[in-house]
């Protein structure tokens, strides 16, 4: 699957969530699966299913606790169920819990992002 870069230089991968197309930023500093903009939860209505709470530390060292939801995303032609949290960011973030199943190549000089699902 091919991705791209935001104007800021952040690498992204396209995903679809309940019919919403998003360019998810690849964030290897985020240990969760998927972080989504809070306002998107309201738009999705009752569809996401809460599966508990998750405690984490912010990049500034603050303790945070978030509700975790199970959501289905369409990525590279496959529907994948992923744990997601909703927060204050305006961007979607793909974290290391999601990326563990993929080989990721980010080539800044060439301007390419490629993500390939590994074989179990």
- The CATH superfamily appears as Acid Proteases
Terminal residue distance: 18 Å
Instruction: Calculate the mean pLDDT score and round it.
Output: 85
What is the total tally of β strands? 10
* Biggest sheet features: 8 strands, mixed
- The fraction of residues in strands falls at over 45%
Rg from alpha-carbon coordinates: 14 Å
The helix count comes to 2
Low-confidence stretches: none
- Integer count of domains: 1
CATH class: Mainly Beta
Write a structural description.
The protein has 120 residues and is mostly beta strands. It has one domain: Acid Proteases (Cathepsin D, subunit A, domain 1, Beta Barrel), CATH 2.40.70. Helix content is 9%, strand content 55%. The strands form 2 sheets. An 8-stranded mixed beta sheet has the order 1-2-3-8-4-7-6-5. A two-stranded antiparallel ribbon has the order 9-10. A hairpin with a 2-residue loop joins β6 (63-75) and β7 (78-87). It is globular, with a radius of gyration of 14 Å. The model has no long low-confidence stretch (mean pLDDT 85).
List keywords for this structure.
globular, 9% helix, 120 residues, 10 strands, mainly beta, Cathepsin D, subunit A, domain 1, two-stranded antiparallel sheet
């Amino acid at each position: 699957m091919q991705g791209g870069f935001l104007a800021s230089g952040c690498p992204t991968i396209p995903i679809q969530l309940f019919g919403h197309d998003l360019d998810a930023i690849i964030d290897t500093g985020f240990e969760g699966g998927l972080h989504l903009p809070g306002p998107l939860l309201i738009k999705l209505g009752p569809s996401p299913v809460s599966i508990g709470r998750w405690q984490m530390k912010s990049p500034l060292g603050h303790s945070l606790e978030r509700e975790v939801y199970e959501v289905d995303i369409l990525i590279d032609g496959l529907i994948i169920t992923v744990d997601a949290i909703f927060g204050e960011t305006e961007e979607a973030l793909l974290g290391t819990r999601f990326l563990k199943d993929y080989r990721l190549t980010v080539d800044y000089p060439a301007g390419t992002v490629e993500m390939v699902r590994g074989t179990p």
